[in-house]
Design brief:
17 helices, Rossmann fold, 21 strands, alpha/beta, six-stranded parallel beta sheet, 545 residues
């Protein structure tokens, strides 16, 4: 069957429609979904869409897609549905149910690949953290370029900009015919470039226009100004901080309102205030921006000055394991003030160096017990510039649940089929599993190494708080955590491998780790779990609940 989904409306409505596409495909996974819209760029790279057509690309459509086909047509306007008019449901739910599609909480989604991010990010270079504002929407032929029902009054918008201009590079999304602000960089680019700009930003002040839907689709919490609670119910998102306009101070004459309280063009006769300054509380907006969660304050990719965003896929960051992991946290955790990072099980110092690229002021301590690997770490450390050399420290130490000398089982690179020294562990391989999960034949040699608990080490080194703990300890994760019971009280984020099936003797597994961390206030970050190339272990992230 072919499903023809036509979207009549603007850019914002098309972004919302991506959630409907996801719901349609969930209900009809084996059928072909054809989307027809005025903004096909919104649906690029979307696996839920089989054909993506613009209205001007309809040549031979009947012949190719209708003639002789089993069809399901989804062509109606959800704005005319009673559930939408009465704000009983969000537009997404109304739209789905209008077509008989089960709604399971689907949200908009956009897919921007790594090449696009690298290309468009060069347009938005900045030495400061980036703030994005969109203060005006509406049609190009709007007479006075301003609608009080949708736009932020110019004086209030300028007040907000002035409050943040010293600390942020502020990009103002606007067409040339729209009202201008001072102390901003105006930007009028194609939609996908603007999506990248949103991904690069730390703060966002938006209106009910395409940008708030794009921010939701990209998982970027924003401050959104909305004229009425009904608008928030129809078009808003829980992830955003929705600032609702003040109650009217004058009884409005709703002469031109049809199926919504206020005409979206901002008809002057309906104006329910004495003056525009009464619409929004500027201090309330500024406070919401100050307190909102940040995507990644001031931390950029080394190339392209691109800030990490929540929907960056692992495969698009294969050159940086840390970028791939941090991407899962963007918009969900405040990464603006990372001061202490621990890399436990370093092997080659690679992730410590990557963390240093993202967090310019952080202190990073790396732990590596195997002498040969520790020497490799030291050699790489010696080649760093002075700034990074001073803040990255390497310790020839195994962390676990005991102190003193312990046996350790290092992979012998000369006797093994491949020199995978990263598989070295506190534990022996189980019989018959000496590297087979990796597709390798690995030989371990027992050595003696110095061990300590993380609590003891932190106390001796005056470490009272840990922002990010990175663990790659080959089955000994729970031992490290049990030796860190005190410092876990002041730890924010744990990025770690977790065992799914044992291949070491004594291998601790994910259910044990989940239970232990749950009792200490951590929860697993939704969407962070991913297999580590095979089904014996995975990567995941725990955050302080």
């Amino acid at each position: 069957m072919k499903i023809i989904f036509q979207i009549d409306g603007g850019l914002g409505k098309c972004i919302i429609a991506t959630a409907v596409c996801k719901a349609i495909k969930a209900q009809y996974p084996d059928d072909e979904l054809i989307v027809i819209s005025g903004y096909p760029d919104v649906f690029l790279c979307n696996n839920n869409v089989d054909q993506n057509l613009a209205f001007h690309e309809m040549q031979y459509f009947w012949q190719r897609n209708v003639k002789g086909q089993e069809l399901k047509l989804m062509l109606h306007n959800p704005y005319l549905e009673i559930d939408f008019v009465t704000a009983r449901h969000h537009l997404i739910q109304t739209w789905c149910e209008m077509f008989g599609i089960k709604y399971n909480g689907e949200q908009p989604e956009l897919f921007i690949n790594s090449r696009e991010r690298g290309f468009y990010s060069n347009q938005f270079q900045s030495q400061k953290p980036i703030m994005v504002v969109q203060t005006n929407g509406g049609a190009q032929n709007q007479p006075n370029k301003y609608s009080w029902t949708r736009d932020i009054p110019l004086a209030i918008a300028q007040y907000i900009v002035n409050a943040f201009a010293n600390d942020y590079q502020i990009f103002h999304i606007r067409r040339e015919d729209q009202l201008a602000l001072q102390n901003v960089t105006p930007v009028h680019a194609n939609f996908r470039a603007l999506a990248v700009l949103l991904m690069m930003s730390d703060k966002r002040l938006l209106i009910d226009s395409f940008s708030q839907h794009a921010a939701a689709a990209l998982g970027l919490p924003s401050v959104v100004c909305l004229i009425d609670p009904m608008v928030a119910a129809q078009f808003g998102y829980d992830m955003h901080t929705n600032v609702i306009a003040n109650p009217p101070t004058v009884k409005p004459e709703l002469k031109h309102s049809f199926l919504s309280k206020f005409n979206i063009t901002g008809t002057p006769i309906e104006f329910p205030y004495n003056h525009e300054g009464e619409i929004y509380n500027a201090a309330k907006i500024a406070n919401a921006l100050m307190q909102g969660k940040l995507a990644l304050h001031g931390n950029t990719y080394q190339n392209g000055n691109l800030r990490i965003a929540e929907n960056v896929n692992t495969e698009n960051n294969s050159n940086s394991m840390v970028a791939s992991r941090l991407a899962r946290l963007a918009g969900k955790a405040d990464l603006s003030n990372i001061k202490q990072v621990l890399e436990i099980g370093s092997c080659h110092l690679g992730q410590s160096i990557e963390f240093a690229q993202f967090f310019q002021d952080a202190k990073i301590d790396a732990f590596e017990p195997v002498p040969a690997s520790y020497e490799l770490c030291v050699n790489r450390h010696n080649k760093l510039d002075d700034h990074n050399k001073n803040r990255i420290k390497v310790h020839n130490l195994a962390l676990g649940d005991s102190t003193g000398e312990i046996p350790f089982f290092a992979v012998d690179p000369e006797l093994s089929s491949t020199p995978n020294v990263g598989a070295s562990s506190m534990f022996r391989f189980m019989d018959g599993l000496n590297g087979t999960p990796f597709g390798q034949n690995l030989v371990q040699t027992e050595i003696a190494v110095q061990a300590d608990t993380l609590d003891n080490w932190c106390e001796n080194n005056n470490i009272s708080e840990v922002d990010i703990m990175w663990m790659d300890v080959q089955g000994a994760e729970l031992l490290v955590l049990k030796g860190a019971d005190n410092i876990l009280k002041n730890t924010r984020i744990i990025m770690t491998e977790v065992g799914l099936k044992p291949y070491y003797e004594g291998h601790t597994l994910k259910p044990e780790i989940d239970e232990y961390l749950l009792t200490r206030g951590f929860c697993e970050l939704e969407g962070s779990f991913e297999l580590n190339g095979f089904d014996y272990e995975a990567n995941t992230i725990y955050v302080k609940n």
